[in-house]
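Structure first, sequence second, as always.
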């Protein structure tokens, strides 16, 4: 089955550079974006979301993307992992909500997670995608340039500064959890900095783009389908 992947986008205004899930140039295959009006970063990046409201928006926009010809669905925020099973049950299409889905398929690896917000990432987010609830993680600092842009929904991005912050967070993750051998980026805004992280810490890193490349390949019968694939 050929066709584009549908991306359920949060209602945000921050820049979407190449590598970010919200930039079509980040993909090697066609995608369709659909903004979930009124559902912003604060609705997703929280330990206590309004689950019925967010799920209703996910379902309605998933059905719209299916009507537009999408063959599978993802989201623009890793915290929406919380809705993997619920959305899969309601969606007319296969669903891969979050890069956190990598963790279950990296069985045998000692995975550590980089997240947009350590304060808001909970065991429930890991449980929702079948990952160990004690998976170690480190977040980008709350006062960082990253947080001001992506959590604060600012209109400017200091790419170089954010890259430095992401690399430092990866080093912090390794310092706190020296046994890890693989990094997963929860946040869909982090892929532009993957190469810098891998070069700095010498560990492989997996992000939402890796997940969706394999997901789309499975849906279209193309190459892929390795252990990092995810389909709801």
């Amino acid at each position: 089955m050929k066709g584009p992947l549908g991306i359920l986008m949060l209602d945000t205004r921050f820049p979407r550079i190449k590598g970010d899930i919200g930039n079509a140039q980040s993909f090697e295959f066609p995608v369709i974006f659909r903004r979930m009006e009124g559902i912003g970063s604060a609705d997703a990046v929280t330990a206590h979301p309004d689950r019925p409201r967010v799920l209703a928006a996910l379902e309605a926009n998933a059905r719209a993307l299916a009507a537009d010809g999408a063959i599978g669905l993802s989201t623009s925020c890793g915290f929406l992992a919380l809705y993997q099973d619920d959305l899969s049950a309601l969606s007319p299409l296969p669903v891969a909500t979050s890069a956190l889905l990598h963790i279950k398929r990296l069985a045998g690896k000692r995975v550590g997670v980089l997240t947009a917000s350590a304060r808001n990432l909970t065991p429930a987010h890991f449980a929702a995608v079948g990952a160990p609830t004690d998976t170690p993680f480190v977040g980008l600092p709350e006062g960082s340039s990253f947080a001001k842009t992506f959590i604060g929904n600012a209109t400017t991005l200091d790419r170089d500064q954010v890259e430095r912050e992401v690399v430092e967070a990866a080093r912090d993750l390794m310092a706190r959890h020296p046994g890890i051998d693989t990094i997963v980026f929860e946040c869909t805004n982090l892929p532009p900095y993957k190469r810098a992280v891998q070069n700095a810490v010498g560990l492989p890193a997996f992000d939402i783009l890796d997940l969706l490349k394999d997901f789309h390949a499975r849906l279209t019968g193309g190459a892929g389908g390795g252990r990092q694939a995810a389909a709801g």
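Margin note: The radius of gyration is 16 Å.
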